[in-house]
Amino acid sequence: MSVSIEVENVSKVFSMHYHRTLKQLSVGMVKRQETSKTFQALTDVSFTVEQGEAVGLMGLNGSGKSTLLKLINGVMKPDVGTIRTRGRIAGLIATGAGFQPQLSGRDNLFLNAAILGMNEAETKAKFDEIVDFADIGEFLDTPVSHYSSGMYARLGFSIAVHVDADVFLADEVLAVGDRPFKQKCMAKMQEIRSQGTTIFYVSHAAASVESMCDRILVLESGNLNYDSKVVPDGSVQGGIRYLHYDEPETDAGDEVSSGVSARSDAALGADI
Amino acid sequence: MSDVKGRRDNAAKRARVLSRTKAAMPVAPSLDGPRTERAVDAELESPVPKGGIVGVLQQPYLLRLLVRRQLAQQYAASLLGFLWSYIQPAFRFVVYFLIFGYVFKIHQGTPNFAIHLFCGIVFVHYFSETVNGGVRSIWSNRSLVKKMAMPREIFPVSSMLVAAYHTLPQFVLLSVICVVVGITPDWTGLAALLLGIAIIVVFSTAIALLLSAVNVYYRDFQNIVATLLQMIHFMVPMMYPISRIQQLGADHPVLYQLYMANPACQAVLLVQRFFWYGTNKHDGKAAGINGSGGFPPDMFLRGIITLVLSIVLLWLCQKAFSRLESKFPERI
Ligand SMILES: Nc1ncnc2c1ncn2[C@@H]1O[C@H](COP(=O)(O)OP(=O)(O)OP(=O)(O)O)[C@@H](O)[C@H]1O
Ligand SMILES: [Mg+2]
Question: For atom 11 of ligand 1, which residue has the closest CA?
Fold first, then answer.
């Protein structure tokens, strides 16, 4: 098997520039305050993914998951370290696709497909399939700024899965989809997985990561603290346990309502 | 220590609730068939797309899509649509022609003053539109820049192409008018035309490229550019003949050099050498505006130097762009 993604000692630092005016800048200089503050989003992250592996990436909000995906996708460059990937990359990053709000769904479809490396003939051949899967009906020629957030995500996801990529990134893409669409997407991702595409899947839902992934990475404030392939006796379940996502809920008031939905979720999960 | 653990427990609890309610995900069974092995026929390399103007020009399909979309977008929700890109220059032409031609009586010493003026209007229009559209291009495509991996030079370059698309019919109109009036083209004039076009294309692309990147950091630039571009009409010899500037140049050599250093000014001069001078030559009117048509004798030398400097500038702007670009997604 060949290496699909290689991440070596990658760090990413954001400088938090507050939007300052000239006045604020000069006052800051005179008073010798620091003019910018930095934030370390990723610290010395290293791992290698083989072609065809399905990797789940978990961690709390702000732990750097989307940042890592942006680096792998090539939208951002790491400050330290190197990232190398093999083949075509497609996917969705941080809920939603990169769409031009003023353009119609159709125009965005062509544009996005072109950016992902599809040529005109390829896009036209797959056009109907993409539109069918997204199921956005008569809204195809409406500007995407008028779409509901679910429709936005549907179209984006549909384009990304039809690209025939070698690496597929999915970052909470389905968070806004409705249940039937989520099921359709999960099934599609399993199909992609079975075709030997490398999958990088970010989700807060332990059960879906468990069913989708062969391997789990856990990020904690920018540090890669659990890699089921590296940790002795590591497993996907182990990673979820590491995150304490499997512990029973102790809050009694919450238990009644959310417990029911959790159980029905589990039941649904077992069904399909 | 326990504080850290407590915080983590709390956060984990929040995440659990989240995973149960909002992010509840259906689970699809693994497809139990054999997993295909996928042989990827590619090198292991950086996922960042190869940028640069050269990289952009190697993606003609994407560039064409962007240009077409940008054009469609400009005329969405407008009744006159494409006509707007003619109304503005036409209106400007009429105003300048009446004010400078009749009020200031420039047309008396300048035969075919309308062509003299129109040459300037067309090329200044191209320059302004490239720079004006270019400076905004990255910021207005921020939703794409933030999420898609692509060479970002594509946005200023497509602004330049959109400007060219708008200017081309004006250029054709200028040519037709010159043919109707009667033009005698000559090789020197043709060389001047090509040199002028090359200067304006390279120079405006360089400026658009640099400013589009700087504008991501400080949005003041789009206003600065819009303000400065208002002056450009007065800084090229179109409402007045260049001979007026040369007369002033005798007393103010530094100002004269500054005026002449403007690449847009040189481009207009060179283009006038083909169109305007060409229409004046055959009936001897050009003699009235002295042998060389009143053009500065060092026009070609200056033009070639300016073209070389513009190419160097484009290269420098590309360098600067590449440096600024790496921080785009996080600054937007
Ligand atoms: N452009 C930016 N400028 C400054 N800080 C940023 C920027 N982008 C992200 N960050 C910071 O980096 C950290 C990691 O963000 P990231 O989006 O990767 O988190 P995440 O793990 O995806 O979280 P979530 O589960 O909410 O999606 C956050 O603290 C965030 O505030
Ligand atoms: Mg995220």
Answer: A41
